[in-house]
Amino acid sequence: MADPDDIRDDSADEPDRGHQRPAGVDDTTVAAVGKLSEALETAERARGHLYSFHQLTGAADLELGEAVELFREAGHDGIAEALQTDLVGRNVLPGRWTFQIIEEYDDGYRATFTALEERARDELLDGRRHVFESEMKEERRTRGRRGHEARP
């Protein structure tokens, strides 16, 4: 009896063309573009933390406003006034709220990073993404086994 985890269609048991190494591309080039893509992924994770910083800072400012009102209710007008005038709505960096930091990051560093990563893929791998990872998948998966298919 055949193993139910065996795959019957061998014709689709290889990566799609968009994830295959173009002819004539050497291992070092694939590794270099793969490392560049990995670096971009790390920068994208950093960007996510930047958004967390943005949202947490905004939440803190709103909570601070509530604290100011409670200090006023309790009759601590001096503390309330100092918090209100020196901290509520304050820039986190000179001239910038967190949304402005995000915009500068996106328009400068991130835009340059993504453009250069795309340029490297276009020039060296015919625009193909994740070739390094696709080859790693081919090395690590068990061909012919359910759950180890080359593609969806």
Brief overview:
With 152 residues, the protein is mainly α. The chain has helices at 27-73, 77-86, 98-125, 131-140.
The overall strand count is 0
- Helix- and strand-based class? mainly alpha
Give the N-terminus to C-terminus distance in angstroms.
26 Å
Q: Taking Cα atoms only, what radius of gyration do you get, to the nearest Å?
A: 26 Å
Count of helical regions: 4
Shape: elongated
Q: Sketch the major β-sheet.
A: none
Strand residue content: under 5%
What's the structural domain tally? 1
Note the run of SSEs as H and E: HHHH
Nearest-integer average pLDDT: 93
Low-pLDDT residue spans: 1-9
Fraction of residues in H or I helices: 55-70%
What does this structure look like?
The chain has one domain (10-140). The longest helix is centred in the N-terminal third of the chain and has 47 residues, at 27-73. It contains 4 helices and no strands. It is mostly helical and 152 residues long. The model is unreliable at 1-9 (pLDDT under 50).
Q: Which features would summarize this protein structure in a list?
A:
mainly alpha; 62% helix; 152 residues
Layout: helices, strands, pairs:
Blueprint: H1 27-73, H2 77-86, H3 98-125, H4 131-140
Helix pairs in contact: 1-2, 1-3
